[in-house]
Amino acid sequence: MLEGLLFILLILISGSFVIIAFITMLIGFIKKSSSLKKTALTIAILPIICWLLIAFWYLVTLPSFNKSDMENFAGTYTPNTSSKANKSEISGPKLILSEDGTYLFDGLEGIGLKKQGTWKTGGNDGLVEFYDKNGNLSEWASPYDNDDDHSLSFEYRGGQDPETILFVKIRAE
Asked: Fewer CB atoms inside 10 A, N or C side of the chain?
């Protein structure tokens, strides 16, 4: 959320300074003042800096964070046995997340994951997104990262009331 507010702030600041620079440049042409034209060009530097910051954030920084998260979350996950769901139903499923962005799942119907597909971090509000073979979003999970103990929380829709199932990382890839 803070990222979105910062993005909006940078856009508003850059837009305001573009308008100010344009008006100053226009006045400089009307009055034939080279100092006003230079001032307008100086003012135009701030929007360029704002746009470069936005581009750096979305083209360099975020992909680096997401790649690091994918490396951290890659591994084999099994359901937490202290879950409220029926333990006999969830004792067997495994979710294997690979660092290359693919996954294999051999489990529950109520979770909504396909048997295989792709996954990525950096979804809305930090969710981990799972896609089927055709690239359609099939499920998402809330990640939890406690030191080296990674886990993913899925909504299980197997019964009348949806429950949350926590998949805990048991082995790194």
From this structure: N
